[in-house]
C-alpha cells in the first residue's frame, strides 16, 4: 500500500470512528478527544484510543507530534467524549522509562490499528530501550480526572 493510500485509509477510518463516537458508540474503546487550539482558542476534536493501565488512564500519540499533542502541551485541560457522555481531565506528559510500560501495553492493544505509524520493528515485544526511544516521537500522557 502506498503512502497516499495509507493516508487516505487512515483519514477514512478516523472519520468513521469519530462519527461513531459522536453517536455514542465506542469502536474498540475509542473516544473523541476535545482540545482547545493553542492559536485559535477554538475546540478541536480527533479520535483517540485511551488506555487504562494499573488504574490510570493514558493517551499515546501514535502519529507523533500532531496538532492535538501541541495543543495539549499548551493547555493540558482536555475532554474525552463518547456520544453525550464526556469527562474532563488534565493531561500530564510521561517521559522516558516511566512511559515504557504504557507504550508496551498500548502496542499490545492497538498495534493492529496504529503499528504502521511506529518505526519498523517496534512492537510490544521490543526492548525497554527501544520503546523508550520511540516515546520522544510518540508522546504519552497520563490523564487525571478533574
TrEMBL record:
Please give the InterPro entries that the UniProt record associates with this protein.
Answer: F420H2_quin_Rdtase, Split_barrel_FMN-bd
Q: Which residues cross the membrane?
A: none
Which Pfam families does its entry note? F420H2_quin_red
Domain of life, source organism: Bacteria
Please state what the protein is called: Nitroreductase family deazaflavin-dependent oxidoreductase
Organism expressing this protein natively: Flexivirga alba
